Amino acid sequence: MPLDLGLDGAHVVVTGASGGIGLEITRLFADQGAKVTAHYNTNSTTLQPLLSHYGPQKVQALQADLVDEAAVAKLFQEATSTFGVVHIIILNHAIVSSVKEPLWKISLERWKNTIDVNLNSCFIVAKEYLTRLEVAPAAVKDMASVLIIGSTAGKYGKAGDSDYAASKSALMYGFVLTLKNEIVKISPKARVNSIAPGWVVTPMVQESLKNPDVVYTALATVAMKKIGLPQDIAPQVVLLSSPKVSGHITGQVLSIEGGMEGRLLNKPEDIQV
């Protein structure tokens, strides 16, 4: 007998839904009977198979630049006009630079852009969601959940990507731990959590994973000696968003990284004894 997660008919907004993890999250929510607004910024091509499979009654794709408050307000207005009030938001979008540089070589422009896209946009989206949630019916408030996709970079740091690591850490800890205490003023049952994946095979990192040195460094501190897949992440997102099976879980960061123990800082050839 399938496990009932209590998500049938819920309206879920998934940001960054056109990426590898976002696509799988969207698919699994739709399979659970949810109505999914799949957000994208620049390209919706990868979403087309899902839109065709589930149809407009289950999944809709909407574009928005999430660093723009007006665009986010429009996104929620359009989403609500089709699927009703939003019950759950999954903040999945993020960028990471393809250029790996130590902090003292990162330009202020790059730093500001990463913080804007990864952190400030989550504030804007969450604020819009919570403003609408405050006046939503009780049944919607009881299902309210904010789930943020963090990263092991936010837990262990990531050399060459200090901007990305800082943005993820801010979300996973300061943002989650504060908002979980504030959202209950809107609804006592509302929850805020984060999931922190390790390396996952997605279009965002495919080029990097072609480098054997990168793969070795990624796996050297991972007990299971493998890189994750979107299918490893998405089920936990759906489970943690479920008020029925995770209704007493809030303020938590769930790491999904195959038993990672920090970062490999030095190889044998780097150490002189």
TrEMBL record:
Keywords: Oxidoreductase
The keyword Metal-binding belongs to this UniProt entry's keyword annotation: no
Gene3D superfamilies the record matches: NAD(P)-binding Rossmann-like Domain
Signal sequence extent: none
Coiled coil: none
Organism superkingdom: Eukaryota
The family this protein is said to belong to: Belongs to the short-chain dehydrogenases/reductases (SDR) family.
Gene Ontology MF, one: oxidoreductase activity
Source organism phylogeny: Eukaryota, Fungi, Dikarya, Basidiomycota, Agaricomycotina
InterPro entries: NAD(P)-bd_dom_sf, SDR_fam
Organism: Leucocoprinus leucothites
Protein name: NAD(P)-binding protein
